[in-house]
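Bug #2210: token dump truncated for N-glycosylase/DNA lyase?
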Amino acid sequence: MLARSLLQRRMRHRTLASVPALWASFPCPRSELRLDLVLASGQSFRWREQSPAHWSGVLADQVWTLTQTEEHLYCTVYRGDKGRVGRPTLEELKAVRQYFQLDVSLAQLYHHWSSVDPHFQEVAQKFQGVRLLQQDPIECLFSFICSSNNNIARITGMVERLCQTFGPRLLQLDDVTYHGFPTLQALAGPQVEAQLRKLGLGYRARYVSASARAILEERGGLPWLQQLRKAPYEEAHKALCTLPGVGTKTSPRLCPWTSMCGRSLNVTTAGTPPPPRVRAPRPTRNWGPRFTEGTTEAQRDEGFRISNWSEAESNSNPSLSDAGSWPFSPCLLEFLSDQFQ
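Reproduced locally. Full output below:
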């Protein structure tokens, strides 16, 4: 009866209070995940706070709304006009857990980082629950091509228009139409660059279409991107840099956020390994290969978590701009340079 009545009415964004029967939950304290910090930190550009503390977006080709209490994460999934209405299944919830990498305990990592960096110990008490997303490699790649010389608000608009024009339509909730991310084939068409320029991507339009064609025609398509997840950092970094529009700044950003190369590290602009304390000089854009070369596997293994955690955290909290006392990565410096110069 509930399912039939819901299908008969126009689909709307749900809240936990309005339709509790269609939500599933699992234990996840805020100390392990803060939706408001993670989803708005500039890692992904496709989540919106449609209702207070309710975040809606596309994950694994399905539309979701997420919210949380102090101790639980709540999820509801929309399966379209002809889909089965009901709580998310265990398999669907698995996609959520993988997306947020919830099998990794932040409490343990925070304890370790605090033991090697007293400053981190002090600041981490105020900003907990920030973690890196494990994103689809295609979405992450082309989103970050759009990020060149850009800010989060403009990147979000570009990615949204990209999906609306080239991505498959999933469903409509209220007045919002959701689309999946475009396939490589959709982005490799002969007229794509011209269309993207009309959508406001500017010079990035050429890089989007050229990278899609290069992956399809020269590198074997999606399997090439997927196999980079297991590749050593140097190999993945070098492979990504062969794509149009991906250079020494963008490649290190892609590696951790797609979990492409497991132990990727955004090295500080000083060129020194992060542990035990990461410090950087004033922001600069003069980055090059020398800043990512010369670090050992052990240094990356120990340091990448602090470096990349700090980027997600600072994008969520732009006020953290003290370049003399905060663990910085090149991407964070770029963000702060754009915001505070």
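Output looks complete on our side. The chain has two domains: 2-103, 137-340. Marking as cannot-reproduce; reopen if the truncation happens again.
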